[in-house]
Automatic annotation (TrEMBL):
Protein name: Uncharacterized protein
């Protein structure tokens, strides 16, 4: 029955979106099936409304933030959330879950495939927000610890293997130098590129950009998230907890394609996302104008290259 439904939904996607590439229609098909699969929960979700839903996820951080967390939060608000299960150091993201288990010590990116228990589970040109609620991370973690004389601005960089290829979406040292020089007088810049030991990894190997020592020497006014972690280790539960506290007090972000972009989009303000065309499905489905702003109401500016990052910074920051 499932195979027949999937084939039928692919046909519907082909008829409705004839100009969409044939391979991309599989994403639309899968999201159709995810939504259709929710029909079996109508009675439990809207009439019985007792705690029953177990949200269990081990896939990519990006998908967890975009689809899983808002789904779990909806069930919490609806009164139907029984339990949540995720990866190590994710408890603070699920602050609303009274029964949360940190079961997994690694992420498996394939876990999102054929997982139809969430209304939105993959890339699509449309999303269903009927069981999807903004998670108030900014309100939950606003604090008086990470406040500075100048407004905070977070540069959330990354440097890792992408799609089994060398790094594409990252800020190199020359661009970092230009950004810091142009912004440091107006903002307290906080630089964030988590080390492999600080987060739960997936298939994307984290490489060394060799920027930490350079920033400390050339731009000592910049705060490094890694240094903040050491300095406040007695006040936070883990690196994710620190990130939540720091991000909650910030309204200006520069982030990279993937999990860093989704995370920064949770905290309102403006988020400049560097995402080069060619690999990410976000471009094909225009997701930087749909689900990314939806995460918190943040203004999302999609930079397709490093020079566009600089242009957006000059115009908006």
């Amino acid at each position: 029955m499932q195979k027949i439904l999937l084939k039928s939904l692919y046909l519907i996607a082909s008829i409705k979106y004839p100009k969409v590439r044939s391979d991309l229609r599989y994403f639309i098909r899968d999201n159709y099936y995810c939504r259709l699969n929710q029909v079996k929960y109508i009675f439990k979700d809207y009439f019985v409304k007792k705690k029953y839903k177990i949200v269990n996820y081990q896939g990519e951080f990006d998908q967890e933030l975009r689809y899983i967390l808002p789904f779990a939060y909806w069930h919490h608000v609806n009164g139907t959330l029984e339990r949540t299960v995720s990866c190590k150091d994710m408890k603070e993201f699920y602050f609303f879950s009274k029964n949360h288990e940190e079961r997994y010590t690694e992420r498996i990116w394939q876990a999102g495939y054929n997982y139809y228990e969430v209304p939105n589970m993959t890339h699509s040109n449309t999303f269903d927000y009927s069981k999807w609620l903004r998670v108030p991370l900014k309100k939950q973690y606003a604090n008086s610890i990470f406040l500075y004389d100048k407004p905070a601005l977070i540069i959330a960089n990354k440097y890792n293997i992408e799609w089994d290829k060398p790094p594409v979406n990252y800020l190199d040292l020359p661009i970092l130098g230009k950004l810091i020089t142009s912004l440091k007088d107006r903002y307290q810049i906080i630089y964030n590129r988590p080390l492999a030991k600080q987060i739960v990894g997936d298939n994307s190997e984290i490489l060394d950009l060799n920027e930490y020592a350079w920033i400390r020497e050339a731009h000592p006014e910049v705060l490094l998230m890694n240094d903040l972690y050491e300095r406040h280790s007695n006040e936070v539960n883990n690196f994710n907890h620190l990130q939540l506290l720091v991000y909650a007090n910030c309204n200006r972000f520069i982030s990279m394609h993937g999990g860093t972009a989704a995370f920064a989009s949770y905290f309102e303000g403006i988020n400049i996302i560097l995402s080069a065309p060619g690999n990410g499905m976000e471009h094909h489905f225009n997701e930087f104008e749909t689900i990314f702003p939806q995460l918190s109401g943040a203004k999302i500016l999609h930079a397709k290259n490093r020079e566009e990052v600089l242009q957006y910074v000059n115009l908006h920051y």
